Amino acid sequence: MNDARNGEAFEAITVHNFSEKILEQVIHFHVMKLSGGFFLWVGSSPVLSNLAVSMSSRYDSMPSSTLVMGDPSNTAPNSMAQRLAKKTKKQVYVSYSLPMTNSNISLLVESRIKKEVELHPEHF
Questions:
Q1: How would DSSP label each residue in the chain?
Q2: Cα–Cα distance for residue pair 39/20, rounded to 1 Å
Q3: Closest Cα partner for 36 from 77, 88, 107, 104?
Q4: Phi and psi dihedrals of 79, rounded to 5?
Q5: pLDDT recorded at residue 12
Q6: What's the predicted TM-score (pTM) here?
Q7: Which are the contacts of 3, defined by CB distance < 8 A and separation ≥ 6?
Q8: How far is residue 51's CA from residue 49's CA, in Å, rounded to a whole number?
Q9: In sequence order, what are the beta bridge partners of 17?
Q10: Phi, then psi, of 109 in degrees rounded to 5
């Protein structure tokens, strides 16, 4: 959905939700498509415990990434935002609100996100 604001194209925010049972745990994914990027929340309960942002830079092949809020020892949101920004070439905000008790779950969660990006690129 496009609109014109002050002579510039304006794209409305769209929302896409999906869930997946991963290692006996239901994981929820919430995507808000923004103009030039997207916000992704991943979690099993409605908590926003951290937020990272990443975007491509012409000065480095790896996108720049920073943690906006949350525990700096939890690198999951930063890493995921950086990899998604590199894959999609967009500005990416990530909130990864899952406990870091199982490293396999992070890999499976990221695989599920990549599958969703391939199946429904219009939501990202």
A1: -EEEETTEEEE--EEEEEEEEETTEEEEEEEEEETTEEEEEEESSS----EEEEEEETTEEEEEEEEEES-TT--HHHHHHHHHHHHH-SEEEEEEES-TT-HHHHHHHHHHHHHHHHH-GGG-
A2: 18
A3: 88
A4: -65, -45
A5: 87
A6: 0.88
A7: 9, 10, 11, 12
A8: 7
A9: 30
A10: -65, -45
Find the angle CA(23)-CA(29)-CA(34) to the nearest 5 degrees: 155
Task: State residue 42 phi and psi, 5-degree precision.
Answer: -125, 130
User: What mean pLDDT do residues 28-39 have?
Assistant: 97
User: Distance (Å, rounded) from C-alpha 45 to C-alpha 26?
Assistant: 9
**Site of tokens 């498509």:** 33
Checking DSSP bridges between strand 25-34 and strand 37-43, what pairing results, if any?
A: antiparallel
Q: What does each C-alpha distance from 58 to 55, 62, 63, 64 come to in angstroms?
A: 10, 9, 9, 10
Give the tens place of pLDDT for each residue, 46-93: 999 999 999 998 899 999 999 999 999 999 999 999 999 999 999 999
